[in-house]
Amino acid sequence: MNDETPWSTHRNRLVRLCATLGGEPTAAEDLAQETLLIAWRLRDRLVDPSGTSAWLDAIARNVCHRHRTRRARRLVRERQAVVEAVTETGPDPLVQLLERDELVELLDRALSLLPADTREALVARYVDELTPTEIAARCGTSADSVSMRLVRGRTKLRHLLEDELRDEPAAAVWTGRHGAAWRPTRLRCQVCATAGIEHRRDRRRGMVELRCPRCSPEIASAFALDNPTQGPLLEGVVRPGAVVARMAAWSASYWTGDGTGTVACTRCGNAVERAAYVRDDMAGHRSSRGWKVDCAHCAEQQTISLTGVALAQQETRELRARRPDAVAVPVRREERDGRAIEVVGFRDDASAEGVDVLFSTGPDARLLAVVTG
């Protein structure tokens, strides 16, 4: 159809109409063109030229309705496929929640924030169900490159839902259902010295948490962002290394002495007696024994394992500063000077340097001595 078409004078008006009805302003030009093409094919049905505008508007409404239907179905398919990929746990009850229009739109917005090649790879893999090899052939790259792009794309998509889009009501449904994702870092674990410490900032629960997936799959350290003592330490701190450093420095300053006496409650400031704890459900694990404070006034609780206490000692921190490859050795029980003790130690194999932190095996778990060498 060329510009000599009698209806071409209606084009600008149809573009504006389609931008309103189509729900996707960027597609308005195409929808208007499709309207005019249909009108050209059906021109013999227009018996009264004075009704041309109304007739074209009716065609445009049908075209836009079909476009909205196709787009909604495509978004639902993309959303279901990519959500399952992001959760990596197969079908999930969240898929049902995502039937709500606002969640479909939220995921569409999140996808639109990804780089074009990443978005296309995700859609090709989880909507078109292409293999990484097939996607690589389409994109002119390697299958390994595509696989890495998919992994990073899933991670970035979830981070978008938790960060940039977190203020959206629909995003709250997402994080409320799954919680914040654990994010890998390049930081070394202070116990096993393996790189890959994971951290997460769960804004819904107001927590910053750390763990080592190798030696401590449960949460190893946690700070409450609403705690008046701990929260300010992490305010505006995003870099994982800075988070770990601040948490370690606070632990070293708070858990001093031999584990007895009082400390100030981190929430209300009242004096609280320190006591030992034993976790029967973790018998044999290096975190099964430790120290705790329970505030009777505000119900705030703080805990640290004996391994954490050993790491907080000045001698251990100096060893790890000199020898980053120093690792924890198995906790052992010995008898010294006729007294049963528990030894939490760290060693650097290359230099043979080490630190042993000695605790009583009794119910008080008192710190007895720190031995270097």
TrEMBL record:
<dbReference type="InterPro" id="IPR039425">
    <property type="entry name" value="RNA_pol_sigma-70-like"/>
</dbReference>
<feature type="domain" description="RNA polymerase sigma factor 70 region 4 type 2">
    <location>
        <begin position="106"/>
        <end position="157"/>
    </location>
</feature>
<dbReference type="InterPro" id="IPR036388">
    <property type="entry name" value="WH-like_DNA-bd_sf"/>
</dbReference>
<keyword id="KW-0731">Sigma factor</keyword>
<dbReference type="InterPro" id="IPR013325">
    <property type="entry name" value="RNA_pol_sigma_r2"/>
</dbReference>
<dbReference type="Pfam" id="PF04542">
    <property type="entry name" value="Sigma70_r2"/>
</dbReference>
<dbReference type="InterPro" id="IPR013249">
    <property type="entry name" value="RNA_pol_sigma70_r4_t2"/>
</dbReference>
<comment type="similarity">
    <text>Belongs to the sigma-70 factor family. ECF subfamily.</text>
</comment>
<feature type="domain" description="RNA polymerase sigma-70 region 2">
    <location>
        <begin position="9"/>
        <end position="74"/>
    </location>
</feature>
<dbReference type="Pfam" id="PF08281">
    <property type="entry name" value="Sigma70_r4_2"/>
</dbReference>
<keyword id="KW-0238">DNA-binding</keyword>
<dbReference type="InterPro" id="IPR014284">
    <property type="entry name" value="RNA_pol_sigma-70_dom"/>
</dbReference>
<dbReference type="InterPro" id="IPR000838">
    <property type="entry name" value="RNA_pol_sigma70_ECF_CS"/>
</dbReference>
<keyword id="KW-0804">Transcription</keyword>
<dbReference type="InterPro" id="IPR007627">
    <property type="entry name" value="RNA_pol_sigma70_r2"/>
</dbReference>
<keyword id="KW-0805">Transcription regulation</keyword>
<protein>
    <recommendedName>
        <fullName>RNA polymerase sigma factor</fullName>
    </recommendedName>
</protein>
<dbReference type="InterPro" id="IPR013324">
    <property type="entry name" value="RNA_pol_sigma_r3/r4-like"/>
</dbReference>
